[in-house]
Amino acid sequence: MGSKNHELVPTSLIEKISRLRGGAGSVHKSISALAKVGLIARVKEAKYDGYRLTYGGLDYLALHTYAKKKDVYSVGDRIGVGKESDIMVVADHSGTQRVLKIHRLGRISFRTVKSNRDYLKNRQSGSWMYLSRLAAMKEFAFMKALREEGFPVPEPIAQSRHTIVMSLIDAFPLRQIAEVPDPASLYADLIALILRLAKQGLIHGDFNEFNILIKENVTKSEDGEETLTLEPVIIDFPQMISMEHQNAEMYFDRDVNCIKRFFERRFHFVPTEPGPFFRHAKKTVGKDGVKRLDATVEASGFTKRMLKDLEAAIKEKGDQTAQHSGDEDDEDEDDDNDEDEESENSDADNTEYPHDGQVSGGLLGDDAMASKEDMVEDSMSKLTV
């Protein structure tokens, strides 16, 4: 509750809103227990005594919500990690596997941003955790709208704070596929998806080999002959924008060109026809009575203000990263114990990709301390900052 209005929650406010029996002594005991396992952190050299929620604490709160609602019963392996998200396999009570996506905006560029505190000072609600929550809200809203309109996307199951639970797709990322039997057919399917999105008012914004899964469907004819067909599935929607966006043409062209370049490089396939072009796609928006999904998402509660906050933060983060890319080794003493600032040795360009190593950052990283789980749960059930 305190974190909604304070990035650094004063200790006095924690005492006031916790309502723990035993007074200040009980509060400080709970604070100490939470800090020991990395769910909250004390900030050194701050103007006042207080604590902030860590990504580990935020992870715990999200998992606690899912557990109460029976969306998640167990947590498995990390299957993907990127600049701004972690991907975990989870399961419900019946053992059905699902995917938990944890947004972590600012993880890669955090050292850059922390050296420029004006970024957060000028934005009352501009913490990375707030922005990660917005990214999760946006992705869930778009995934739900797309799913309801029959687009090939994972089933959105639940959203809590900076996380999303969705169905697990048995498929391979396009970037992992070395060859396909009919590149022209798959290319046509992907371009058709770009145009279909545009007709319903949307641009993916990051439509590339990292964010396209390929399902293999095998059908048998009456004589027993098997036929293999490839079905694309779209993932990763935090950057999705409206066809009315001021930079819509740039994003549309970028999506198209990403697919063209990949198919030429990987499959040596070059389309015989130019395009598609934004000016033509723009004329189809809302035609034939199709639903405008950009309007649908806004009506769902993800407001233009939220979208503006998220886009501005992502843009400024990108600018700061480019400007200070050589300064990543600089350390701030006040963040020595912060798990969301661990170095990510990734050269991938996009959100998700398989990774064999372990990555710290949050409750589900190396810094999670399962041995004190019972103590943490007892404390967190009483004290939420």
From TrEMBL:
Keyword line: ATP-binding, Kinase, Magnesium, Metal-binding, Nucleotide-binding, Serine/threonine-protein kinase, Transferase
Which stretches are annotated as coiled coil?
A: none
Q: Does the keyword Ubl conjugation apply?
A: no
GO cellular component terms attached to this protein's record: cytosol; nucleus; preribosome, small subunit precursor
Where is the stretch described as Disordered? Answer: 315-385
Q: Which Gene3D superfamilies match?
A: Phosphorylase Kinase, domain 1, Transferase(Phosphotransferase) domain 1, Winged helix-like DNA-binding domain superfamily/Winged helix DNA-binding domain
Q: Give the catalysed reaction(s), semicolon-separated.
A: L-seryl-[protein] + ATP = O-phospho-L-seryl-[protein] + ADP + H(+); L-threonyl-[protein] + ATP = O-phospho-L-threonyl-[protein] + ADP + H(+)
What Enzyme Commission number(s) appear in the record?
A: 2.7.11.1
Q: Which GO terms describe its molecular function?
A: ATP binding; metal ion binding; protein serine/threonine kinase activity
| Name of a matching Pfam family | Rio2_N
User: A GO term (biological process) for this protein?
Assistant: maturation of SSU-rRNA
> What is the top-level taxon of the source organism?
Eukaryota
Instruction: Tell me its family.
Output: Belongs to the protein kinase superfamily. RIO-type Ser/Thr kinase family.
Identify this protein by name.
non-specific serine/threonine protein kinase
